[in-house]
Design goal:
Radius of gyration: 18 Å
Number of strands: 8
Number of helices: 10
Strand order of the largest sheet: 3-2-1-4-5-6
CATH superfamily: NAD(P)-binding Rossmann-like Domain
Largest sheet: 6 strands, parallel
Structural class: alpha/beta
Bound molecules: nicotinamide-adenine-dinucleotide
CATH topology: Rossmann fold
């Protein structure tokens, strides 16, 4: 049996990265559709803080670093603390993500043990899906997982190779997991937005990256548009594919001088 139509009304969602941007827009839309949301994020933006204050009992916050599996494993219990005994999440949004931060990208190569971008963008959606599946199977109830991927999950961009690799990884994962809908009553889908006008580009820490990739709000879609697609992906049994508006520009990035071997 497949999950089928899954209205947001009376559902409980865990939303990683819900403290800002696309995932915050989804939280607002979900709550206005009758759902409750646990935001799992490192922090809340001022906008998210104010929305949380205005929606007591409907939105809760759990401090969570999605790179930590311990933090991810704690989320179903955090839902119980927030919304009551026996509450089992129905929806899991793997939305937290980073875009080519200075501290984790291919060309700066400042990391010594692993790429944190891969932990955040690629490993966390996979682990969260496993947690979702385990929690739902134990409770014998269906659930939906939405992975916020990107057109960078199907296109390559030289200047954002690590980001593209991380998003390709989750697109491959979601494709592989399609049978879980019928096999386990767990529907796993991805949304692949193009460029979206969010703090990922407009935030204080995003100035360099916005200049490097020539971000322009006029060419971008809005977080609300992506949130509506996420809602449709959850609620509808058959989702029509909508074309992405624009994928990442090339990006003005070159390898560090030290990395370029002298050509003799
Ligand atoms: N903005 C775009 O152009 C665009 C396009 C396609 C896909 N996406 C994807 O959409 C998702 C949301 O991005 P956004 O544009 O809303 O950006 P955003 O910066 O507004 O939101 C990202 C959120 O993720 C959180 N986050 C980052 N690292 C985390 C960690 N280790 N643990 C917990 N939370 C963490 C941040 O605190 C923030 O609240 C990301 O996965 C991003 O890759 C964005």
């Amino acid at each position: 049996m497949v999950v089928g139509a899954f209205p947001l009304r009376d559902k409980v969602a865990i939303v990683t990265g819900g403290g800002s941007g696309i995932n915050l827009a989804f939280v607002v839309l979900a709550v206005s559709s009758g759902a409750k949301c646990l935001i799992a994020d490192l922090k809340l933006s001022p906008e998210a803080e104010s929305i949380l204050q205005k929606n007591p009992g409907k939105i809760a916050f759990q401090n969570c670093d999605v790179a930590s599996w311990e933090d991810l494993e704690a989320l179903p219990s955090a839902v119980i603390s927030a919304f009551g005994k026996d509450t089992i999440p129905d929806i899991y949004i793997a939305g937290a993500g980073v875009f080519e931060p200075k501290w984790s990208n291919f060309f700066n190569d400042s990391e010594t043990d692993f790429y944190r971008t891969m932990k955040i963008n690629a490993e966390h959606p996979i682990k969260l899906t496993r947690i979702a599946m385990r929690t739902s199977l134990r409770a014998n109830k269906p659930c939906v997982v939405v992975v916020v991927a990107s057109t960078a999950g199907i296109n390559g961009t030289y200047g954002a190779a690590l980001y593209c690799a991380s998003k390709h990884a989750v697109v491959g994962f979601v494709k592989s997991m399609a049978p879980a809908d019928e096999e386990e009553n767990v529907k796993i889908v991805a949304v692949l937005p193009g460029v979206v006008d969010t703090p990922l580009w407009t935030g204080a820490e995003a100035k360099d990256v916005a200049a490097q990739f020539s971000f322009q709000a006029e060419g971008a879609i809005t977080a609300d548009e992506v949130a509506r697609t996420m809602k449709d992906a959850i609620e509808q049994s058959q989702l029509e594919r909508s074309p992405a508006k624009r994928s990442l520009p090339y990006g003005d990035v070159r390898p560090n001088e030290d990395d370029i071997e002298e050509q003799s």
